[in-house]
Write a structure and sequence with these properties.
The complex is a heterodimer of chains A (291) and B (439). Chain A is an alpha/beta fold and 291 residues long. In chain A, 41% of the residues lie in helices and 22% in strands. Chain A has two domains: 198 residues, Rossmann fold (3-Layer(aba) Sandwich); 83 residues, no CATH class. Chain A has 13 helices and ten strands. In chain A, helix 6 packs across helix 7. The relative contact order of chain A is 0.17. Chain B is mainly alpha-helical and 439 residues long. The radius of gyration of chain B is 26 Å and the shape is globular. Classes of the chains: A alpha/beta (291), B mainly alpha (439). Chains A and B meet through helix 2, helix 3, helix 4 and helix 6 of A and helix 12, helix 13 and helix 14 of B.
């Protein structure tokens, strides 16, 4: 494991001036924030604020227009904006989940977790040649992979379902499986895109416990996009608020909760706060003017 | 129309809803009438004055009557049967299928034993062994394509190109370089795999329909090159006189050339042409079994699991650090390699190859074997290859009707088993022991 017991609170991910333009649309504008090791950093904001775009930039699915994404490992720093998506997962150790769950539905739960350990197993099997002839070296590696999978299955209560198709699991369990699958690549930074979406209160409480356990026991940083405020306020150490692609608040849950800009972004602007002519110019579309 | 009708039938319970039956049967009869009138009703016959039109309205009437009665019976049966069969999944097919999955290992072993003993059985004459080796070529091609389509989920419509590369590389290597079959075999496999990678590179970013179109084009390009590069491939005339394989240096001929020893002389047998046929049969059986064992083995290895993961979700693969380029190229290369092996066997069996043998219809045939068998299923490929290659051969007496029956059978399989004959998939690794079909 990449656990670093004495590294608590040290900067893990530094996002500087991240800007992502799609043609004329600015999805993320000059965003800068820091996520720390052993902390859960939540990114919140109204729909269309650019939260998932930030994730896609971090995990290499998009190449940012401008900006630097520095991931600090103990011995070296990876600049994520220059890396391919799969190399970010493989070398920089950034794992992610998706807003609409992306499991391998017709493979078993256990296989999902083994596929996540592909690169380790591939090296152990000497690109499958050793595996083809059943050498001991590969058998040991496979057993270790199964043990790691078993650890995560037990942690999430998925053990009884290990040999079932992932696609046949109930929705809440699929969400949990996706998270532990991401953990199986042994990341230093785990990015979760709305992990509580569609969960009932009991399931989101279990999710909170899982995330807190991951933070405590594995010493990694967690980035979290979430709309469910019971999750965000309950477990985040630090919250970044986006609106229309720009940072509007950055602080602890208590600071963010009382920030007038955040309240305005979530509840809408009251018209009598603006001079009459300005309100008439911008009307209800003031957001598009900013973008 | 049908779901509504069944719902109403279910509501009516056991009783027969006569107006509904008549309505459905009448509609069917109307459709059949519209089709049968031009197809059956008119016929051109040669007469003294040229072509005349003859009428066969009695045929039309018969077709309409058969359709009406058949449809009425079908609807009536569904009404009566629907009440008894509460759970639709518990049909005979489903139960037979489950029994089949439990004993896959034994069925496979029995099939291999039968295949090994086949040439020794009393009914196995030259024709039977010949058909069997023809069948095994398709089984092997099906297993090879299964890696690309069934496991990696890359729809390849130009698979025959690699088959052609294998066949031509053996033919040309034996003709110009004098290489024996056993030396050419790895060469053919390597060349085909090389072409697999060559095709793989430009299509890395494509999936689904787009990939299918590009691979289709690739298959045609190879064929057209074979037709037009006259100086190298002898164009449409093909290559004849391809060397026959020898049994560890023993030739299969009545009068071996100088310095050669014939198989029958060495073993003190009387010369019989069936020796060579049986040898070819065992050769393709061995090649096919190697393909099968390799595929079964590699499915349980990281590469094989990565192929299946790629089929399931490419974006998830990327997010887990799997390099999609390597995974796709390895699938294309390994699938192509087996086609190359099969191709060189084809060349040595026929002794003559031409671009005619590598048309698109071959690709379509192999793909339909994989799809019909159930994507990713090894035993499904065998059953489907039997249905597609051997059955039409057996029913050759029925002439043009055999294709009609073949088409009808395909439609029925797709209606009853839309995910192929064997849609079942066993996990490659289990946490809890004691699941069906051990490791």
């Amino acid at each position: 494991m990449m656990a670093l017991p004495d590294a608590a609170g040290e900067a893990l991910l530094e996002v500087e001036h991240l800007t992502m333009r799609f043609g004329g649309l600015v999805a993320v504008n000059e965003l800068s924030f820091v996520a720390r090791r052993r902390e859960i950093t939540a990114i919140i904001g109204p729909n269309g604020a650019g939260k998932t775009t930030v994730f896609n930039c971090l995990t290499g699915f998009y190449t940012p227009t401008v900006g630097r994404l520095a991931l600090r490992h103990p011995r070296r720093t990876y600049f994520l904006e220059r890396m391919d998506d799969f190399r970010i997962a493989q070398f920089a150790g950034v794992a992610r989940t998706f807003q609409n769950i992306r499991l391998f539905p017709r493979m078993s739960v256990l296989e999902n977790l083994i596929v996540a350990q592909h690169n380790t197993l591939m090296a152990a099997s000497l690109f499958s040649v050793a595996g083809l002839f059943g050498l001991a070296r590969y058998r040991h590696a496979e057993r270790a992979a199964i043990e790691r999978a078993r650890y995560w299955l037990e942690k999430t209560g998925l053990t009884p379902f290990a040999d079932d198709d992932a696609g046949s699991l109930p929705y809440g369990l699929q969400r949990r499986l996706e998270i532990v699958r991401a953990m199986c690549i042994e990341p230093v930074l785990l990015c979760l895109d709305e992990p509580a979406a569609g969960l009932n209160p009991r399931e989101s409480a279990e999710l909170n416990r899982l995330l807190l356990a991951i933070r405590a026991e594995h010493g990694i940083g967690v980035l979290l996009i979430e709309h469910d405020m019971s999750v965000v306020m309950g477990i985040s150490d630090h919250i970044v608020v986006l609106d229309h692609g720009s940072l509007i608040a950055d602080g602890t849950p208590d600071e963010v909760r009382s920030d007038p800009k955040v309240i305005r972004a979530y509840l809408g602007e009251e018209e009598d706060e603006l001079p009459g002519d300005v309100a008439a110019d911008f009307g209800r579309n003031h957001g598009e003017g900013q973008a | 129309m049908r779901p509504g009708a069944t719902a109403r039938l279910a509501g009516a319970g056991m009783g027969l809803d006569l107006p509904l039956i008549l309505k459905e049967a009448g509609l069917t009869a109307l459709v059949v009438f519209a089709l049968a009138l031009p197809l059956f009703g008119f016929r051109t016959v040669d007469s003294a004055g040229g072509l005349d039109v003859a009428y066969r309205f009695d045929w039309v009437a018969a077709a309409v009557a058969v359709a009406f009665v058949g449809r009425a019976l079908l609807v009536a049966m569904r009404t009566l049967g629907g009440a008894q069969r509460a759970r639709p999944g518990e049909g005979l097919l489903a139960r037979a299928g489950r029994a089949f999955y439990r004993h896959t290992t034994w069925i496979g072993a029995a099939a291999v034993a039968f295949a090994v003993l086949l040439p020794l059985l009393p009914f196995a004459d030259r024709y039977v062994i010949d058909i069997a080796s023809y069948f095994l070529i398709y089984v092997m091609l099906g297993w090879g394509l299964n890696v690309v389509v069934g496991l990696a989920g890359l729809l390849d419509l130009g698979y025959v190109a690699f088959y052609a590369v294998g066949a031509y590389s053996y033919a040309l290597a034996s003709l110009h370089l004098g290489l024996s079959f056993w030396w050419s075999l790895p060469l053919a496999g390597a060349l085909a795999a090389g072409f697999g990678i060559l095709l793989g590179f430009p299509v890395l970013r494509l999936r689904g329909d787009y990939l299918a179109i590009v691979t289709l084009g690739f298959g045609e390009i190879i064929r057209i090159i074979l037709v037009n590069w006259y100086s190298f491939t002898n164009g449409p005339n093909g290559i004849s006189g391809i060397a026959r394989p020898s049994f560890f240096g023993l030739a299969f001929s009545r009068s071996p050339g100088p310095g050669e020893v014939a198989f029958h002389e060495f073993f003190g047998l009387d010369y019989a042409p069936v020796h060579r046929i049986a040898f070819l049969y065992y050769l393709i059986l061995g090649l096919a079994l190697v393909t099968n064992l390799f595929t079964l083995r590699i499915r349980r290895l990281p590469v094989g699991r990565a192929w299946e993961a790629l089929r399931e979700d490419e974006i998830a693969c990327r997010s887990l650090g799997l390099n999609p380029t390597n995974i796709k190229l390895s699938a294309f290369a390994i699938g192509a390699m087996f086609a190359g092996f099969a191709g060189s066997f084809f060349a040595t069996r026929q002794g003559f190859i031409s671009p005619e043998s590598f048309t698109f219809i071959e690709s379509a045939l192999i793909l339909s074997i994989v799809v019909l068998g159930g994507m990713g299923s090894q035993i499904g490929v065998v059953i489907a290859a039997f249905a597609i290659v051997v059955l039409p051969e057996w029913f050759r007496e029925f002439q043009q009707y055999r294709m009609l029956v073949f088409g009808a059978a395909m439609v029925m399989i797709m209606v009853w088993r839309p995910r192929g004959l064997i849609a079942h998939r066993d996990p490659t690794v289990r946490l809890h022991a004691g699941g069906e079909a051990g490791r």
